[in-house]
Write a structure and sequence with these properties.
alpha/beta; four-stranded mixed sheet; Transcription Regulator spoIIAA; 103 residues
Length: 103
């Protein structure tokens, strides 16, 4: 019997609630950003958003991040603006620091 080794798991968990928003837990970086961006875009294709006026992007349980947090917020803002929906971002301390970092 040949072993293929341990399964790789994503360092991020993304939960999409079709009525209110998207919650992210774990690490948000360049490797997990595409998955989050896809989730934001898919939210509007999968959810009944006719009566939605606010999307909540809950990043309060992101434990580690880099400038991908800024890119994720920009992407979500663009998607929401295109649909005439407000965006509410709930940052963790790690996200808050990344969003306010000066480069």
């Amino acid at each position: 019997m040949t072993s293929t080794g341990p399964e790789k798991t994503s360092p991020v968990t993304i939960f999409v609630d079709g009525t209110s928003g998207i919650s992210v837990t774990g690490t948000l970086d360049a490797s997990t950003l595409p998955e989050l961006n896809r989730s934001v875009t898919d939210f509007f294709q999968l959810a009944d958003t006719r009566e939605l006026d606010l999307l909540t992007l809950d990043l309060s349980t992101v434990t580690a991040c880099d400038q991908a947090a800024c890119a994720a917020v920009r992407h979500a803002q663009t998607v929401c603006t295109d649909r005439g929906i407000a965006l509410r971002v709930v940052p963790s301390e790690a996200v808050r620091l990344a969003l306010t970092a000066r480069h």
